[in-house]
Amino acid sequence: LTFGPRGTAQQRAPHDAQLDLLLHVQSLPQSQRSASQELNEMYAALPPATQHLTTKEFEEVTVPAEELPAEERRAAHLLRIEALPAWAQLAFEGYRQLNRVQSQVWESAFHSNQNLLVCAPTGAGKTNVAMSAVLRELAQHVDEEARCLPPQSSHDFKIVYVAPMKALAAEMTATFGRRLRTLGVQVREFTGDMQLSRRELDETHMIVTTPEKWDVVTRKSSDGALATLVRLLIIDEVHLLNEDRGSVIESLVARTLRLVESAQVMIRIVGLSATLPNYRDVAEFLCVRESGLHYFGAAYRPVPLQQQFVGMRARNTVQRLKDTNQTCFDRVCKSLREGNQAMIFVHSRKETVSTAEMLLEMAEEAGELELFTGGSAQAGKRSSSSGTKQVRDSRLRDLLPMGVGFHNAGMLRPDRSLVERLFTEGQCRVICCTATLAWGVNLPAHTVIIKGTRLYNAAQGCFVELGMLDVLQIFGRAGRPQFDTFGEATIITEHAQLPRYLNLLTKQLPIESRFITRLPDHLNAEVVLGTVSNLAEACRWLQYTYLVVRMRKNPLVYGLTYEQLMLDPDLQNALVKILRTAAQTLQECRMVRFDPHTGTLGVTEAGRIASHFYIQHETMRLFLEELRLDEDQLEELEDGSMPVTDISEARLLYLVAQASEFEQVKLRDEEVSELRRLSQNACPIEIKGGLETAHGKVNVLLQAHISRAKVKEFSLISDLNYIADNSGRILRALFEFALSRGKSSLARLLLRYGQMVEHRLWYHRHPLAQFVGMHADLLYRLENCNASLERLCEMDASDIGHLLRHPRSGDMIKRYVSHFPHLELEAQVQPITRTVLRIRLTIYPSFRWEKRYHGAGSMRWWVWVEDHHGRRLYHSEQLLLTELMCKPKRDEEYAQHQLTFTVPLVEPLPPFYFISVLNDRWLGAESSLEVPIRDLDLPSSDEEHTALLDLQPLQVSQVIPDPKQASIFKYRHFNPIQTQAFHTLFHTDENVLLGAPTGSGKTVAAELAILRLLREHPDQSTLYIGPLKALVDERGKDWRKKFGDRLGCRVCEFTGEHSPDPGVLNRAQLILTTPEKWDGVSRGWRQRPYVRRVGLVVLDEVHLLGADRGPVLEVVVARMRHIAEHLQQRVRVVALSTALANATDLADWLVVRRPLGLYNFLPSLRPVQLRVHIAGFPGKHYCPRMASMNKPTYAAICQHSPEKPVLVFVSSRRQTRLTALDLIAFAAHDDQPRRFLRQQSPRTGQLLSEHELEAMLERVRDASLRHTLAFGIGLHHAGLCRGDKELVEMLFAREHVQVLVSTSTLAWGVNLPAHLVVIKGTEFFDPAQHQYVDYPITDVLQMMGRAGRPQFDTSGSAVVLVHQPKKSFYKNFIYQPFPVESSLHQQLADHLNAEVAGGQVRTHQDALDYLTWTFLYRRLLRNPSYYGLESTDPKSVARHLSQLIDTALVEL
């Protein structure tokens, strides 16, 4: 726009109404203008009846109350409550009709589900608008006949009301709870002051919270289920977008809108706001259509408002203050003479007191004191009030009897509540308060005065003018509905600022976005949540914010020109620029991993902790730098150890006080003396940097909080509460981060201080002080007697009473000691290799659970292993104990729980490791165990691996002369591993142990040995033993075609579902079975000829000897060896395994001649090379952790296999469904919902039409599978019928379906390789143990082995998503050969009983001889410490074996 010299528009570009509001053209430069000139220009825009008064002291402009025209008032239809549904009338008890605003909004609020934005003046009744929307949601669930919600309805939906302040949240909770109680609606407050348990959240229908609290909830994936239950989100005071906290509202709305799209759930958003100039922008941000937008001007106030703007002329500060006080006093007196009450708003806590005292002093001088007191009788009534006598603030106690009170955030809550009650009852005539009263409490008055407009802005470090939104909010408190015909609001400011406020009144400035100021923190939250993984996704996320709306309307405010906006209308370049800056900031703070070239964003542990604990990035930067916790520093040490960080307590508190969360805490002059007193009496830790700074104030108040010191200066009480709340959160966040970085001494210190802040108790105090009801005198005696918990545990009640010289207290102290959380520990160490140690920790809870002390939920403990110096952490995890878990079983003294974990070993071995178990909440509840390490006898590491020779691949038709036998192989050449082992397998009868990675073609080795047996020993049979029924079924299906149909062999499958008669078994040439089945039949081998006919035993996956079912396999092999020796006939053994670390021992046990029959290749020697990616995920709870892995799974598919087949392994049927649904949602969010469905098979070229697909889907019996197949994602688990399984396998094999989500059984049972394998979690639920346990490492390797398709891929990819504490373990064994140990000693009694029953074992010596045939006996000598053997000399070995047998016999 261009303007002539007098401000007339010469040329106007197209623009909308919002731009008009931004334009205020003035004819002279600002420097040449006076306040009077600006005022003259303002008058033209004011209402005609505006009055103007000029005196020597001030200039006053009175704007008359604006009212609706009479005809509009008469025409307005007011909705009567009796017209509502009968059940809805219960929420409006006491109302006869709705007001004009509520009546007009009712139709769209109650009779539609569209989003709403209601802009109306303060006091227009927006709470009832919110109630209308709430009733709309309730209407979908309420039982109209019973007029209440049905039981358990809270599990179906949630309503969230977001209030800007905790005080307002408490008020709204009370209001909605009271009005909706008859409908059976449970309303609860969920703020920093009011925490809710998981059970309470489940039972709640309506949650009233603050923006920050709901932001914390929704940014955690563990609370994702709660967010998806929300059906109505009400945001009160949405015009706070313009304030510092507005970025949180933007983040909430953006996250909600994205959830609506991604999860396809209906979440209605209702925004309530004061009058706004650019309300259409806010409506666009909230996705509100025109029919859902309601704007009401000042004329719709229930009580018309007369506004007075007073500008004080005096230039001298002292004189201006004097004139301001006099003007304020005069207007208060005028209001009191008319029988009204007055509220005076000032801008500091100190001013509330001084203004109240000033009014009484001036009243006394003017002889007007009775105006305030209402007469001596009324004053006496107030002074005799019991509430007034209980006021703790002495100044308030003196003022209230005079009819004057003050109200600020620094007061105690009971004092504030009393002032509010007295003002409501009319006993208090005047309140001097801060602006928090206008936002937080609904307390109207006839007269409202704003005394001064300059206030200190802590963020900017200077004085600023009061914002117009605050002015409007304060003015909204003027006028009491049902009592006043109009209200009066006065603002007293400097004369130079008078035009500003008149201008803002007539042409309010549009509210702008403050999102950029906190963009790094909100971006980090989205990265951690998994909704943003690169800059492109971040740009899409920003499109949902108010920032983008305003950038398009007013680009100049955000650093853009209109020319740039025209060239980049979608703002892609601008958004990428600000996002790149934010990402670089986060990378500097180690909160994300940012690749500037690809734009990818990866989550880090620091970022996750900052997001979950709501820590600002500036604070994380501070602690990373000061405590040297950054990752680069850790990587600098060559020996792999972490640098030691020893920090003093004084230094720690000094750093906490410097956190950016405490920036707004300022030091006031009147507080210094009180802080000095507190530092002397309540601060045992040195105040680094002195207490004359804001950081020193934070430090002093934090220590005073822990010391439970009594603070006399009431202005410090609010600061102390704020500091206590935030410091506890900061310390908890830093504790978890120090724990993740392996800093045990620092983590211990941080945990201790976090507990001290929560309990307000120093660590040196007696632990029993944490029990509520413990007398101070008894604590003093306990501490003087040095009566530690250990000493008290050993004493009886009478001894305790005698020790304390207080006999009656003995029973109580003993009871407290029995309730104090304590655990007994036992540990067993087992060296797996020379670098990995397994620890089995047994935990015995030795305390009595009491709900009043320990709660009804769970108790969290931290288990960690640290070095003998107590500085480096090797392992950490959480343990949750419940009341039931602490109760011992019938025949046990204590309940017991086992944890198994691995830690690294570094030679030379240290003397010992420390195992510590620390309670998360109870100070001093810690158990430690010293585990000797130095004397461990480690297994040997001299294992050699077979080198893969550079041989010419053998051609099948040339090396297998029989064409029929050659026809069973579908390919022309054997791979390099098969070629190298071919001669031993096909041309000799040597026993063979073949160890090679999964996918190396080991099954061919078994087939070559079978062909040799058929050719050389046709009268003997082959026994195939597979560890899993699914594997036996798959092998049987394959070999029936190969050996049965093509070679005419009699193939017999002998599993749980197939039990052929003995005649069939006697005639069978190839028997396939499981270890359990063959164990049962081979016990009677003397009576079963088919057992004695076995000439070849194929042991598949023999590395499972160390698994749960390993003892059965071990016993079967030992028995077959024993049978062969007894019958004096050779039984060939071909054992197939993954790569092994102790293949020599296994080969010797299987009587494999070395090197002829031993082939043990490295894990890296795969026909198709494999790239493995391992990612750790935090979180103790299994299901939320699995949910957080879904987005990374989708990202892995897009990155590693966007077009090729993908296998996703999960632990349960439920997880197959949830994972598939999330993958579909992510694909839909990328506008490619059917990206995984292939109409034409890339492999065969076969077409699959829509008609054929629909016909297939109609035959599918499982509803979830039918749904996911339509999007190209298959499900595979044991719960599917055979037809569904076969259809899924066929579609995946032909690549019509790109993604198959399966349970782990598919890895063993069905040969369906893929280019990419994603292992989503390495745990499964074990019903026997009633907990989640880890997959055996062999299962993980088997699943990984499905990655890479021979003849199709040159390489494959595997992505393993694990629990964070297990990441290092899987990194070790995924890339290293796996040692096999025996577990027969754990089930020896059962197998010994079978041999006794079969007549093989009759004496103790027979039992010893029986053990010498087992793998256990051989490994006992090679890895003695694993089995608890102290020495390997013959006597020690014999003694150990005898003890094993004796223990088994005692059990039997």
Task: Detail the topology: elements first, then pairings.
Layout: E1 2-3, E2 9-11, H1 17-22, H2 35-43, E3 51-54, E4 58-63, H3 70-75, H4 86-89, H5 100-110, E5 116-119, H6 126-139, E6 158-162, H7 166-180, E7 187-190, H8 198-203, E8 206-209, H9 211-218, H10 224-229, E9 230-235, H11 246-263, E10 268-273, H12 279-285, E11 293-295, E12 305-312, H13 317-337, E13 342-345, H14 349-366, H15 369-373, H16 376-383, H17 386-389, H18 394-399, E14 404-407, H19 413-425, E15 430-433, H20 436-440, E16 447-451, E17 454-457, E18 462-465, H21 468-475, E19 487-494, H22 498-506, H23 519-529, H24 535-542, H25 546-553, H26 562-567, H27 572-588, E20 592-594, E21 601-603, H28 605-612, H29 617-626, H30 631-635, H31 649-657, H32 672-682, H33 694-707, H34 714-740, H35 744-759, H36 776-784, H37 789-794, H38 797-804, H39 810-819, E22 823-831, E23 836-845, H40 851-854, E24 858-866, E25 873-882, E26 897-904, E27 912-919, E28 926-932, H41 956-959, H42 963-966, H43 976-987, E29 992-995, H44 1002-1016, E30 1021-1025, H45 1029-1046, E31 1051-1054, H46 1062-1067, E32 1070-1073, H47 1075-1082, H48 1089-1092, ...
Parallel strand pairs: 5-10, 5-11, 6-8, 6-9, 7-8, 9-10, 12-19, 13-15, 13-16, 14-15, 16-19, 29-34, 29-35, 30-32, 30-33, 31-32, 33-34, 36-43, 37-39, 37-40, 38-39, 40-43
Antiparallel strand pairs: 1-2, 3-4, 4-12, 17-18, 20-21, 22-23, 23-26, 24-25, 24-27, 27-28, 41-42
Helix pairs in contact: 2-22, 5-6, 9-11, 23-27, 23-28, 24-27, 28-34, 31-33, 32-33, 33-34, 34-35, 38-39, 43-44, 47-49, 52-53, 60-63, 61-63
